Amino acid sequence: MDALLTGTPLESWLLLPAVLTAVIETPLFWLCGYRHIGQCAWFMAVNIQTNLLLNEFLATQADALYADWLVVLCELVVVLLEFALCRSVVPGTAKHLWLTLLTTNLSSYGLGLVLFRCM
């Protein structure tokens, strides 16, 4: 996480998942009814930041015994953080935003699992 806080250039293993996540989740966000370009740009920026923070944090955790539970718990924290950050900018009901964020995150997480298993 030091690289994110100090401005050190990020390594490609962090950037690729963040970009792929944004490429998957932003169109889904748009399909869920958030059609304003500013809302989509905000969502993409929040999404990239939370992905970078999540992957940097997970990379520092060495205990593989609890890795699956840690990933699920961290993904939930990411959705809550994205909700808090988007709620202040994206209009609409909290329920619709929450369901949209769950849909986008579950979609990219599931696709990530498929891609990881195929590699």
**What string, H for helix and E for strand, traces the elements in order?**
HHHHH
Number of strands: 0
Report the sheet-strand fraction.
under 5%
Low-pLDDT residue intervals, each spanning 5 or more residues: none
What is the count of distinct domains? Answer: 1
* Class by SSE composition: mainly alpha
End-to-end span in angstroms?
26 Å
Most strands sheet: none
State mean pLDDT (0 to 100 scale): 88
SS summary, helix count: 5
Question: Looking at the structure, what is the overall shape?
Answer: globular
Helix content: over 70%
Radius of gyration: 14 Å
Short summary of the structure?
This protein is 79% helix and 0% strand. The chain is mainly alpha-helical. The longest helix has 25 residues, at 94-118.
Blueprint of the fold:
Blueprint: H1 2-6, H2 12-31, H3 37-59, H4 67-87, H5 94-118
Helix pairs in contact: 2-3, 2-5, 3-4, 4-5
Descriptive keywords:
119 residues, mainly alpha, 79% helix, globular
Describe this structure in words.
The protein has helices at 2-6, 12-31, 37-59, 67-87, 94-118. Helix content is 79%, strand content 0%. The model has no long low-confidence stretch (mean pLDDT 88). It is mainly α. Helix 3 (37-59) packs antiparallel against helix 4 (67-87). The chain contains five helices and no strands. The chain has one domain (2-118).
